[in-house]
Amino acid sequence: MNRVRSLSILALLLVAATVTAQDLASFEKRIQSRVLSNGLTVLILERHDAPVFSYATIINAGSAQEVPGITGLAHMFEHMAFKGSDLVGTKNWSAEEQALRKVEATYAAYDQARHATVIDASKVEELRKAWQDEIAEADKNVQDNQFSEIVDRAGGVGMNAFTASDITGYFFSLPSNRFELWAYLESERFRHPVFRQFYKERDVVFEERRMRTESSPFGRLLEQFLGSAFIAHPYGFATVGWPSDLHSFSATDAQAFFDKYYVPANMVITVVGDVSSAEAWPVIEKYFGRLEKSPAPPALRVVEPPQIAERTVTLRESSQPIYIEGYHRPASTDPDSATYEVISMLLSNGRTSRLYKSLVRDQKIAAGAAGFNGFPGEKYPNLFTIYAIPTPGHTPEEAATAIHTEIDKLKTEDIQADELQSVKTRVKAGVIRGLTGNSGLAMQLAQYQTLYGDWRELFREVDRIDKVTAADVKRVANSTFMESNRTVGMIESASKGGAK
Q: Using alpha carbons only, how large is the chain's radius of gyration in Å?
């Protein structure tokens, strides 16, 4: 072992040792967990470093819960997240409710007419105008941004939401003395959500898709790549949705999705920060206990069939070339998941990683190269993905050859003990670093509780990584990195491949 590597490992071990107190036993003493009578899981972790707290609400549903016709709908909830309820965000709920019903009725008529076998253009335009008129009427009753303004006035920061293939998340932070206000506002969003300005936000999402996917060569490549890698599972759908669906699904569809997936039994809320558990639980029971009990949604039935032949997608663009390949691997709950994490770090962890040293530093054929797990999600069997960005004068094919050389080494050569230990230490240090901030910790605890049914798996994952052996790496590499299990996507220069 050389001196530089020895010092690097020593430094990482010191980082880990510094936070040894943040182990599972320590967190078990400080985290309180309850399942309310309606099925909602809530975790509270007291941390009195500053007079603030953070929260994360995770819904156990994402784009993987969509079906053709409503792709992109899960993402719509991110955009509708803080529109309010029948009590927040409205000037006159009675009038707004009536108007929104008319919006849905006129939209249903318009949508049916424009998808008819024989289309009457004048009738479609008449129905479209009637729908738009009802939208304008409903908008008269909207109190724009009232929810976010209340949070801002209370000192809230970081209010945001995200949509992934497996989950949808909501989060922000507030001063500790605003805990009850938070409980009221957050529970109110789920007690009686109002999908006001739905079609306006649907247009925003369509524009987002246009900018990030249709106008981006890399976005187009990823969409084609995932669609090729997954032929049955909804992981093959783009989270942003297909264009036709973004022009078609309705607020009525959103309500049905909400009623099925946004139920207490399918939600986890984590609160981390300067709160008193004894005082917090009655407040949580008071507000979140209002949410109506409903059965948890059924499990996803579809299973991606084994891939039996390599699949390749090639885009010829006047843009930066890129190479990406993915191999099907089990879900993150699989016993070998820790081994995949170690392999990812071996290939990708900074300037000491194998891909960087080979493709970037030594051969200078790529500006960047890395491999990562969990694409596009983790809950179900997913992809171990590797990419490289060729430097000028070099091609995706050259990058592929170099990547496969490194993969072959994993399959045929034993990892040296010092390299394996270095990787393990870095993985553990990364997990530990994620425990420092309230917001990040709240999110991690909520995600692990959602995915594994137990937040403790966050810490047990470190133990599993520690047990990974060189033989495990070789075994998993040989069972995964096979040509027949590989999907390839690349962008080639249009000048090389010819006109598009």
A: 25
Q: Taking Cα atoms as reference points, which of 355, 311, 344 lies closest to residue 485?
A: 311
10 Å CB burial of residue 454 (0-12, 13-18, 19+) is exposed
Whether 71 and 241 have beta carbons less than 8 Å apart is answered as yes
CB proximity list for 153: less than 8 A, separation 6 or greater: none
The predicted-structure confidence for 196-249, as pLDDT tens digits, reads as follows 999 999 999 999 999 999 999 999 999 999 999 999 999 999 899 999 999 999
DSSP string, 268-313: EEEEEES--HHHHHHHHHHHHTTSPP-PPPPPP---PPPP-S-EEE
303 class by beta-carbon count within 10 Å (0-12 exposed, 13-18 middle, 19+ buried): exposed
Q: Can you tell me which residue has the tokens 């997608």?
A: 313
CB neighbours of residue 318 within 10 Å: 11
pTM here is 0.91
Tokens of 279: 């005082």
* Identity of residue 298: P
Confidence of residue 7 (pLDDT cuts 50, 70, 90): very low
Look at residues 416, 369, 429, 352 and name the one whose alpha carbon lies nearest to residue 4. Answer: 352
Q: Name 90's bridge partners.
A: 142
pLDDT digits (tens, 9 = 90+) for 450-472: 999 999 999 898 889 999 999 99
Query: In 3D, which of 394, 386, 389 has the Cα closest to residue 370?
Result: 386
pLDDT of residue 427 exceeding 60: yes
CA distances from 72 to 62, 67, 297, 383 (A): 9, 10, 19, 21
Phi, psi for 273 (deg, rounded to 5): 145, -155
Asked if residue 458 lies in contact with residue 447, where contact means CB atoms within 8 angstroms, the answer is no
What are the tens digits of pLDDT across the range 67-93? 999 999 999 999 998 999 999 999 999
Q: Which of 278-292, 337-351, 355-369, 402-416 has the lowest mean pLDDT?
A: 337-351
229: its two tokens? 């890698």
In contact, 395 and 495? CB cutoff 8 Å: no
SS (H, E, C) 212-272: HHHCCHHHHHHHHHHHHHCCCCHHHCCCCCCHHHHCCCCHHHHHHHHHHHCCHHHEEEEEE
Q: What is the mean pLDDT of residues 413-423?
A: 92
Is 146:84 a contact under the CB 8 Å cutoff?
A: yes
